[in-house]
Design goal:
It is built from eight helices and no strands. The chain is mostly helical. It has one domain. α1 (7-32) runs parallel beside α6 (183-206). The chain is rod-shaped and about 90 Å long. InterPro entries: DUF4239.
Length: 262
C-alpha cells in the first residue's frame, strides 16, 4: 500500500501517524499528571526500552533499503555495459542482419530507459518488459540467421555470447527493481515508531516537560521513515536510481557505427 502513494502524500501520511500518536500520548500524560505519581518510573522504563528497540528496527530497515538501492544501481550499469558490448559486436555482422540488429538494439535501449521511470509491478512496467522480450526474440532470430550463414566465423559467435549476457542482465535488473523491503518490516517500523513516540510524549507530559522535544523527535523519525520508504521506490520517489549510463549509451548510438559490416 505504501508504494502506490506519491512521495508527498507518503510523507504527510507518515507525519500524521507519528504526530497523532504523540498527541494521544500527550493527552494521556496530561490526564495522568499529578494523579498517579507511581506510574512515572514504570512508564519511563518501558518507553526507554521501546525507543531502543525501535531504533534497532529503523536501522535494520534503512540498511535493507540502502542495500537494495545499491543493487539496482549496479544492475543498471551491468545492463548498460551488456547492451553496449552487444551493439559494438553487432556492427561486425554481415548485412542485412547488421543493420536490422543495430536498429532493434536502439529500440531495445529506449525500452530499458522507459523501465527506469515505470513503477515495478505496474501494468506499464509489464508492458515495457513484454516489448523488450519481443525485441529479444527478434534479435535472437537474426543472430541464428547470422550463425547459419557463417557457422565458422568468429563475429556471429561473439555476438551471440554478448546477446545472451544482455538478456540475462535485463532479467537481473527487473528482479532487482521488484525486490523491495518486506511490507511487514515497514509496517513494524511505522507502528513501533508511533507507539514509542506516543509513550515518549506521555512520559514527558507526566514529568511536566514542554512539547518541543516531542515535536522534534516526531519530525526526525518521520523523515527517517520517509527516506527508508523512498529508497525502496527506485523509479518514482525522491531518491531514484539514475539512468544516466543508459541515456548516454543511447545517445552514442546516434553516431555513425564505429565498425563496418563483415
Amino acid at each position: 500500500m505504501f508504494f502506490a502513494l506519491s512521495s508527498l502524500v507518503l510523507g504527510v501520511v507518515l507525519l500524521v501517524i507519528v504526530l497523532g500518536s504523540c498527541a494521544i500520548g500527550v493527552l494521556v500524560g496530561r490526564w495522568l499528571h499529578g494523579r498517579h505519581e507511581t506510574w512515572r518510573e514504570p512508564i519511563g522504563v518501558v518507553q526507554g526500552a521501546l525507543l531502543g528497540f525501535v531504533a534497532l528496527i529503523l536501522a535494520f530497515g534503512l540498511t535493507m533499503a540502502v542495500g537494495r538501492y545499491e543493487t539496482r544501481r549496479v544492475e543498471l550499469v551491468t545492463e548498460t555495459n551488456a547492451i553496449g558490448t552487444t551493439y559494438l559486436r553487432a556492427q561486425t555482422l554481415s548485412e542485412p542482419v547488421r543493420s536490422q540488429s543495430l536498429e532493434l538494439l536502439k529500440n531495445y535501449t529506449d525500452g530499458e530507459i522507459r523501465l527506469s521511470t515505470t513503477r515495478p509491478g505496474s501494468a506499464e512496467a509489464r508492458r515495457v518488459v513484454a516489448d523488450g522480450g519481443a525485441i529479444q526474440r527478434q534479435l535472437w532470430t537474426l543472430a541464428a540467421d547470422s550463425l547459419r550463414e557463417a557457422p565458422d566465423a568468429s563475429a556471429p559467435r561473439l555476438y551471440v555470447d554478448s546477446l545472451n549476457s544482455m538478456f540475462d542482465s535485463q532479467t537481473s535488473r527487473v528482479a532487482a527493481l521488484g525486490n523491495r523491503v518486506p511490507t511487514t518490516v515497514l509496517v513494524l517500523e511505522v507502528v513501533g515508531a508511533s507507539v514509542a513516540l506516543g509513550l515518549l510524549g506521555l512520559y514527558l507530559t507526566v514529568l511536566g516537560r514542554g512539547l518541543l522535544p516531542i515535536m522534534l523527535a516526531a519530525v526526525f523519525v518521520s523523515l527517517l521513515l520517509l527516506v527508508t520508504f523512498d529508497l525502496d521506490r527506485p523509479t518514482r520517489g525522491l531518491i531514484t536510481v539514475p539512468d544516466t549510463p543508459l541515456v548516454e549509451l543511447r545517445a552514442s548510438m546516434n553516431l555513425p557505427p564505429a565498425a563496418g559490416g563483415g
